[in-house]
Write a structure and sequence with these properties.
This protein is about 35% helix and about 20% strand. The protein is built from 25 helices and 27 strands.
């Protein structure tokens, strides 16, 4: 059933722009949207608003009818059975009369000058109009009533309002329907409609890309001054926000969206243009970024859905050049994701072209090598001191995304006190220090030692005097040497008033700090709480090896401070200059936690050599895959409690980067205390029952910068708290305790 109602306006007046809005369950947002249309600083007769109720079950239709009775804007309401946003927009296109057409969402709203700025640009480019216009999107964050200009594609507006030819600037693609303004007659000539198979996402991008693929010159007029306010709902229930939870997003979007666009290119007899390659890369990379998160919706996909996803991705990436993957800079993209696309799909049996020398351990005289490969492991032949040897430790670390291993990092530890070369599959492979592009095939021990001893780049000296002007020019890296630059360089070399950070650095490097903290072991649990593995390791060190220069870090306000001070702990206040000085001279830094407040506690701007070996004591047993988090940290020793846990981390072809060199199987710390028995202190061995309930992150506040969290208000009434209390107070539990104690 379709119904049409409208205000009175002359059918002979053709509006400049038709605004089509698909309406579904947006009653609470409609007043703001419709009010923003009334507030536009243009002649209302130049606008046409077509609102299509897609079987909306709420009061949206009544709100629209009430608005239509008072607005001066020519408008109409169409109704239809629910069929999705694409079908609603397509119905609206059948009634549109404007020269240009756009598709604003009714839960968003427009700045008052939005249309006047668009109209001004249409008039300015009347003699040579672009294929379409695009406006600036600004996110309105409903939960905080604030605005954000941080959209990843905001860089398209970095040069202000301009017309861009996508063939010349492929990174300026556009894919958002509500901020796209297309020529209606051009779209009608193409019989272009939104794909109704795309129900959850990408229907906008598919429509815009299809439109641009048909143009001789795919040009876009970017209007920097026309601001479209995109609402991020506090309820997190928009179609975009819930789309990631739908399996169809991982199957139908690629099939009916990306692959259909590729099919259009093939039908037209030309390759996929680079702008479209960039657009498809931008969209598909979000799948992999999302999959990296703990608890990502993609983790719930079935094997069948994942198989369809990877099959479609293989077809898509077959049409995207290696060069485009390497050149893609539309948003920050790490090399791991680029490698996943290149090695996982385009070159699934890739052999390494080089081996990187990553790390040197002078104490154990070992060097860590790394290379990338996909498919089967290359045959390794390591020649050390002229003879074939096996590596000290070796592991293939799998990079698993979207449920599939896409490629591997190969980690090899070899001796570093002799000359070595490596052949892979019978081919001598270049050895490269870090990212230095100067390959060599044979490495001598002195080369490794010198490279890693060099550390950071040396600062260039400041030269003085006329005779050194050329050296000064080279030192400060200037293309043109001027008196102003020379004076600035000389001033920089003169003594200056020290900042607090400089004074702190001076203290850390002072003879006193060196004397007190030289060769120190620094231990901590959390800033505000002790009583974890680090506290007990400190106590063990003081008892078994008091010669170790051990210190324990804690906030002075902590409830544990006085207890540990009374016991004789040598305490350092977290965030104090002594804390930083101890770390500056530490050889071992051990903690039961791996959060940033532990691994990088220094104030911003303070550069302190981190020469310590970091020992991650953990505070439990790692059950779920934590490789994304662990791999991002520099961990020199990681303790594990069980054989299964140990193997899950060091085992071959898993997602952790660590080998047996960095992981130790120690058993559960402090477990022996549960069974300790001192007959001199007790006539009867005390029986202990240990109850270890799991914790619930959702019942705690968000951690602050130091990891402190509080119980949420109403915790006692939560299902978790009530269930735990019921167990502890149950007759069965109490009778069981009595039975254990008296047995």
């Amino acid at each position: 059933m379709q119904e049409s109602s409208s205000t009175t306006y002359s059918e002979t007046v053709e509006p400049v722009i038709s605004i089509i809005s698909a309406v579904y369950n947006v009653a609470e947002y409609l007043p703001a949207y419709l009010g923003s249309l009334d507030a536009q600083l243009v002649d209302p007769k130049k606008i046409e608003v077509i609102l299509v109720s897609d079987g909306s079950p709420d009061e949206s239709e009544q709100i629209i009818k009430t608005w239509m009775a008072t607005t001066r804007i020519p408008s109409c309401l169409l109704t239809k059975a629910n069929g999705g946003q694409a079908s609603a927009r397509n119905l609206g296109l059948e009634s549109a009369r404007g020269t240009w057409v756009t598709f604003c969402d009714p839960d968003d709203f427009l700045d008052p000058a939005y249309l006047s700025e668009v109209f001004a640009n249409i008039k300015l480019n009347a003699d040579n109009p672009p294929a379409m216009y695009a406006t600036r999107l600004v996110s309105y964050i409903e939960a905080t009533d604030s605005y954000s200009h941080s959209h990843p594609l905001k860089r398209r507006f970095r040069d202000g309002t301009r017309v861009v030819d996508l063939n010349r600037s492929p990174d300026f693609f556009h894919m958002h329907g509500p901020t796209a303004i297309v020529n209606r007659m051009t779209a009608e000539r193409m019989s272009l409609r939104f794909s109704e198979e795309l129900r959850f996402s990408f229907e906008d991008a598919h429509y815009v890309a299809s439109y641009l693929l048909d143009q001789d010159v795919p040009s876009i007029g970017y209007v920097d001054t026309a601001v479209y306010n995109y609402r991020i709902r506090a309820a997190r229930n928009s179609s975009v926000q819930i789309g990631a939870t739908k399996p169809e997003k991982y199957t139908e979007v690629l099939e009916y969206g990306h692959l259909d666009l590729i099919a259009q290119c093939k039908a037209a007899g030309h390759p996929v243009p680079k702008w479209l390659q960039f657009m498809m890369l931008y969209d598909t990379l979000w799948y992999y970024r999302g999959d990296r998160r703990v608890g990502a919706p993609s983790k719930q996909l079935t094997a069948e859905h994942l198989e369809i996803f990877h099959r479609n991705m293989s077809e898509i990436l077959a049409e995207i050049d290696d060069e485009s993957i390497g050149d893609f800079e539309v948003m920050p993209t790490d090399q791991e994701l680029r490698n996943a696309l290149l090695l996982g799909y385009r070159h699934p049996n890739s052999r390494p072209s080089q081996i990187n020398i990553i790390e040197h351990d002078p104490q154990r005289e070992m060097t860590r090598l790394e290379y990338l490969y996909s498919g089967a492991l290359p045959r390794e032949e390591i020649t050390y001191r002229g003879r074939l040897v096996a590596p000290k430790m070796a592991k293939s670390q799998a990079v698993r995304l979207m449920g599939r291993v896409l490629f591997f990092h190969r980690h090899i530890w070899i001796p570093s006190n002799g000359t070595f070369t490596i052949h892979l599959d019978g081919v001598m492979t270049p050895l490269v220090f870090g990212r230095t592009p100067r390959p060599v095939f044979t490495i001598r021990p002195i080369q490794v030692q010198r490279h890693f001893d060099k550390g950071s780049e040396e600062t260039l000296p400041i030269m003085r005097g006329r005779q050194n002007s050329s050296k000064l020019k080279r030192a400060i890296g200037l293309a043109e040497f001027t008196v102003k630059n020379r004076v600035a360089a000389i001033r920089k070399s003169l003594p200056q008033r020290k900042t607090p950070l400089q004074r702190l650095k001076d203290y850390i490097e002072s003879p006193r700090a060196t004397y007190v903290f030289g060769g120190s072991w620094v231990l901590m649990d959390r800033p505000g709480v002790a009583n974890d593995n680090a506290e007990h390791l400190y106590r063990y060190l003081r008892a078994k090896n008091p010669k170790i220069n051990a210190w324990f870090v804690l906030e002075k306000e902590s409830a544990d401070w006085q207890r540990l001070e009374d016991e004789g702990f040598r305490l350092l206040e977290y965030g104090s200059r002594s804390h930083y000085a101890a770390l500056g001279h530490a050889v071992v830094y051990a903690s039961s936690h791996l959060d940033r407040f532990v691994t990088n506690p220094f104030p911003k701007g303070l550069k302190v050599p981190q020469a310590w070996k970091f020992v991650f004591l953990q505070h439990g047993v790692t059950l779920h895959d934590q490789s994304a988090w662990f791999n991002s940290k520099k961990i020199d020793l990681l303790i594990t409690a069980t054989r299964d846990e140990y193997q899950s981390i060091v085992g071959d072809a898993n997602t952790y980067k660590f080998t047996a060199k960095e992981v130790a199987l120690t058993g559960f710390p402090r477990h022996d205390a549960l069974t300790a028995y001192d007959p001199s202190k007790s006539l009867k061995r005390v029986k202990t029952v240990v109850l270890s309930p799991t914790w619930r992150a959702g019942l705690l506040t968000v951690a602050d910068e130091r990891g402190n969290r509080e119980l949420l208000e109403g915790f006692e009434e939560s299902t978790y708290a009530r269930s735990l209390s019921a167990v502890l107070g149950s007759a069965t539990f109490i009778d069981g305790l009595a039975d254990v104690i008296t047995r």
